[in-house]
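Sat 14:20. Reprocessing the chain from the morning session after the first attempt stalled halfway. Input below, unchanged.
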Amino acid sequence: MPIRRFGGHRSLVSQSPRLSYGYKKMNVSRSGYRVFSANSTTACTELAKKITERLGVELGKSVVYQESNTETRVDVKESVRGQDIFIIQTIPRDVNTAIMELLVMAYALKTSCAKNIIGVIPYFPYSKQCKMRKRGSIVCKLLTSMLAKAGLTHIITMDLHQKEIQGFFSFPVDNLRASPFLIQYIQEEIPDYRNAIIVAKSPSAAKRAQSYAERLRLGLAVMHGEAHHSESDMADGRNSPPLFRTTTGHTGLELPLMMAKEKPPITVVGDVGGRIAIIIDDIIDDVEDFVAAAEILKERGAYKIYIMATHGLLSAEAPRLIEESAIDEVVVTNTVPHEVQKLQCPKIKTVDVSMILAEAIRRIHNGESMAYLFRNIAVDD
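Finished this time. Tokens:
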């Protein structure tokens, strides 16, 4: 053994390979990261496997299952102490079960001394319930509080329904965009896309559609009319309290009555005749509105109709309605599992966004700037 002198005294310093290796191993472990899937079903782990393949790591060993009484149980099969842990959770049809899986896994990792717990939730559930409706509740705010309490320290998501939802969180949120992938699909997979026009299905979607139109150097059309919208002003509490009620004594101030809104017949602002119509939206769930919009666009002379959306929930009878409609193609990303719907309707196409999710994970773990992932991204995307 080599001899070193400390304060005039001779000292033996062990150079044991075992001790040296153990010290280095601990450092590597503390600076490492693991990627887990919060759902063990094949459809939900598909995106997680694509992300880990791009990162060159293995998917973390864990088991997520339901007890006989439908309680969620999570077993993490490896050490996570001192590591950055990324939990990928895609939201299948059973939304509430998926939320519980994410919460239980996050809490299990928190109590196992994980350094940071980052949730990768490409489609954030309950994002449509981000406004007060009469005597209801802002469920999206409740969910963000539950995630923070369970132990999450960061969220990676994609195309939040309303960007203001980021203000509900008490920790950092990276709201990635799918628009570069959908624009690339338009340019490479739609023949003669230069003869297309971008269509907003409603005035509320006009800003997003305008952003696509400006980057593709295409025209813009906006649909307006009596189509049903789940987020209409008639449900925002303006009818509460009732206009008339029996009171005794002083009646208080008499407020002017608001006239009821009456939408005109559905119209298209813009010329779609002889063009390819590309409808842009963030979520496609119940497709009745899209089918009705496609019929109007056909009547106005559009010869092909595409729908581009980030999140393809495609609930209920959506595949059958799309197949029987005037819609030529529905293009969505793989933020939500929809393989069954694709088998039912060949018009549904998928764009893979695992590349940007994997790069976000890598950058967050390495402490690199996320600005590169938002280059040339407009605020209204």
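The first strand starts at residue 3 and ends at 6.
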